[in-house]
Write a structure and sequence with these properties.
With about 375 residues, the chain is mainly β. It is about 15% helix and about 40% strand. The chain has five helices and 22 strands. The strands form two sheets. It has a 19-stranded mixed sheet that branches. The protein has a three-stranded antiparallel sheet with strand order 2-3-4, with no helix packed on it. β6, α1 and β7 form a beta-alpha-beta unit.
């Protein structure tokens, strides 16, 4: 199989799809920066040797760059491109800093699929917050996570993204010992990650390479989701299948269940995903319905396949349609149980959630009220980008 490509230089130019046999690819790309009004020409030469073994793929790449503005300053940033079931991210190791090294505007440029690297978001591993006597967990944080969506907005957390972050940090920290005979341990590796949604703990499973994430406890109280929808559930505080007029169509009605997994979700159950939902129209209309969700919302449309199998389509807040959404998969399983669409998940028997990019496995633990998500995180390539 072809190993992920390590790009040694990358000047905001998206690499074409690499072939499956040895060859030489040479491309000259000229890009104009409207921000600095300088013109930069970058030459990238990549040589890829395919192999049936994971350890024998060779990749070389050289780059030269010139600018018409000698006084202009540039910065080179190393990154990794990972995806969780096709929900893809650019990962940057900023663990020596407390703030992201990119601005939201720069992240938008990097995420652009025609004029940048291409991604649903940029994720930064930052230094852990300073410890305090008030929070015992802070003393145990390994690092912090921040993320900018492809539209420049900043969500509280991202389920697929945190799996990719855990894999990225693990790969980076273990790269120097990758060739040693004892570099692969049978013991699971976990991280305590500080996020804007609180403590999140991913565990890398050595048996199959999957990652299980303790996503914490779901939030149902309407004012904390937050949503302005009138509580209608038996607890008097939460919203379960509340009937709402579609923001984009007065003749259409939705039944919305509001859940927060550290970020707000509007979950809607339908009989047929293909027939009942126009994702490109219904998704953004609900995402931006701030009269219903003041902080906007991730929107999940769900079809029940069986008592242990749900299928979903998602319109993510700040990213649009994506192939997978981890927090969304957690939210819809919780919503399905509360709405009596499926029975509670038995211990060690998670619910299968099918997304456009593949399957996630979600368990809502009745003993501690926490939600656990298991799924993959895959390296696409690594490289350096110049800004």
């Amino acid at each position: 199989m072809l190993e992920p490509v390590s790009i040694q230089a990358f000047s905001l130019v998206r690499q074409p799809q690499l072939p499956t046999r040895a060859n030489l690819v040479e491309r000259f790309v000229t890009s104009t920066s409207t921000r600095t009004r300088t013109r930069t020409t970058t030459t990238i030469v990549a040589s890829v040797v395919s192999s049936t073994t994971e350890d024998s793929t060779a990749t070389t790449l050289s780059s030269s760059s010139s600018s018409s503005s000698p006084s202009s300053t540039t910065k080179t940033i190393a990154f990794g491109k990972y995806h969780g079931l096709g929900n893809d991210f650019i990962l940057i190791d900023n663990r020596d800093q407390t703030e992201p090294c990119l601005t939201p505007e720069q992240a938008m440029q990097w995420c652009h699929r025609n004029f940048g690297i291409g991604a649903d978001g940029v994720i930064f591993a930052l230094t852990a917050p300073p410890s305090s006597n008030n929070d015992k967990d802070e003393d145990e944080y390994d690092f912090s996570m921040r993320i900018y969506n492809s539209d420049g907005s900043e969500p509280e957390m991202c389920g697929n993204g945190i799996r990719c972050l855990a894999k990225f940090v693990h790969d980076k920290d273990n790269r120097s010992s990758r060739d040693s005979s004892n570099s692969h341990s049978d013991a699971p590796v976990s991280y305590k990650i500080h996020t804007l949604a609180g403590l999140i703990v991913p565990v890398l499973n050595p048996e199959d390479g999957s990652i299980t994430v303790d996503m914490g406890k779901p939030i149902f109280t309407a004012s904390k989701v937050p949503t302005t929808l009138e509580p209608n559930f038996e607890d008097g505080d939460s919203v379960v299948e509340q009937t709402v007029v579609a923001p984009n169509n007065p003749d259409k009605m939705w039944k919305i269940t509001a859940v927060s997994m550290g970020n707000p979700h509007a979950v809607i159950f339908v009989d047929d995903l293909d027939r009942d939902v126009d994702l490109a129209v219904d998704g953004p209309a609900l995402e931006s319905a701030t009269h219903l969700f003041p902080s906007k919302a991730n929107v999940e449309f769900v079809q029940v396949r069986s008592d242990s199998h749900l299928e979903m389509r998602v319109w993510e807040r700040g990213a649009g349609p994506t192939l997978a959404c981890g927090t969304g998969a957690c939210a819809l399983v919780v919503a399905a149980i509360r709405a009596h669409k499926i029975p509670p998940t038995p211990p060690q028997q998670p619910c299968r959630v099918t997304l456009p990019g593949g399957d996630l496995w979600i368990e809502w633990n009745a003993d501690n009220n926490k939600v656990y998500m298991t799924g993959p995180a895959t390296l696409a390539f690594t490289g350096e980008a110049t800004i």
